[in-house]
Amino acid sequence: MKRIFIAGHRGMVGQTILRKLEARRAAGEAIEILTRDRAALDLTDQAAVRRFMQDEAPDAVILAAAKVGGIHANNTYPAEFIYENLMIECNIIHQAFAAGVQQLLFLGSSCIYPREVAQPMRETALLTGTLEPTNEPYAIAKIAGIKLCESYNRQHGTDYRSVMPTNLYGPGDNFHPDNSHVLPALIRRFHEAAQDESPAVTLWGTGTPRREFLHVDDMAEASLFVMDLPRDIYDANTSPMLSHINVGTGVDISIMELARLIAAEVGFGGAIGTDPAKPDGTMRKLLDVSRLSNMGWASRVSLREGIRQTYKWFLENQRDLRN
Ligand SMILES: NC(=O)C1=CN([C@@H]2O[C@H](COP(=O)(O)OP(=O)(O)OC[C@H]3O[C@@H](n4cnc5c(N)ncnc54)[C@H](OP(=O)(O)O)[C@@H]3O)[C@@H](O)[C@H]2O)C=CC1
Ligand SMILES: C[C@H]1O[C@H](OP(=O)(O)OP(=O)(O)OC[C@H]2O[C@@H](n3cnc4c(=O)[nH]c(N)nc43)[C@H](O)[C@@H]2O)[C@@H](O)[C@@H](O)C1=O
User: Fold this and answer.
1) Residue 315 falls within a domain, yes or no?
2) Pocket of ligand 1 contains residue 176 by CB under 6 Å
3) Considering the domain boundaries, does residue 77 fall inside one?
4) Is 138 designated active site?
5) Residue 278 belongs to some domain of the structure
6) Does the global pTM surpass 0.95?
7) Is residue 281 part of a domain?
8) Where is the NAD-dependent epimerase/dehydratase domain (predicted)?
């Protein structure tokens, strides 16, 4: 029986990975899934994480817990983003190692790459330039997570892997008006504007930045795909000091194009304006996904279908949103 701990199982990605692992277990796979919510185990608490890892000694850990938010949250709460993420990563990765955990999957982010870098961004672009200032603290913590995994692998022979997702969205997302990412923020804003019959909706920034959006179902599938890869295949496609793998669709669109897709889906027919006083962040963020596609994985959910599904989820869960 393989015992797998999902850190962050109540988050958007963690709950999707949990659902997929539960389905595998129900289908007869010999796995036991371990979870703890924040009240039971604060992952920034080193002693608590040590106790948990020593007591439970899982066979594998999926690190999907993090302090997460959009451009405004990153820019407004930089201390929380760097401190909490560094603490969670150090605690989980080191205490997993100390408890003899051989297998771990760390979820990073595409914001680890320099602000001005050749597009699409290859894994080799890591640490080749200056980061985007609005999310530098979060990106530094995510880079530290990759380097923690690599360092334990190099010194101790563990099998700790890292995946770098592009911008994610889907059921279970955070729809907070200020602190969320753009896609859920705009679903909410356009929905409310359609309901109130507002004449216009304003986007933050210029609407010209380009982003790549991956549905959370695809992200959860990719995470399990990478975790399940035989070690020789993972190692042959990576290197000890450049071991992370990009996860995305390989396709990007502008924020204005995204807004038009969302407006059409929620039935908003008014004007779409921009607010250049708000930050654009990185102007383009598109991942080179050839490393993962060469190993046999590709995304499946189209952006149009994903927006439709996410809006449906939003309508059904409006009263119970987490923010
Ligand atoms: N969403 C996105 O667009 C992207 C996400 N990622 C990465 O993917 C991973 C998953 O993100 P996502 O699912 O979107 O994020 P969510 O915010 O939806 O989930 C994060 C989870 O981590 C938990 N958590 C945070 N801090 C602690 C803590 N101190 N102790 C215990 N639990 C904690 C949260 O618990 P609680 O429920 O109690 O708040 C939550 O369940 C993260 O590593 C993120 O950085 C990468 C790129 C893009
Ligand atoms: C996943 C990723 O998420 C963050 O980086 P980001 O890609 O900039 O993410 P975002 O979704 O917040 O914005 C994307 C673009 O959209 C524009 N935009 C318009 N209107 C709204 C709006 O209403 N809300 C938001 N949030 N953005 C808006 C916004 O100005 C920007 O140009 C980082 O935290 C980073 O650390 C990270 O990993």
Assistant:
1) no
2) no
3) yes
4) yes
5) no
6) yes
7) no
8) 4-233
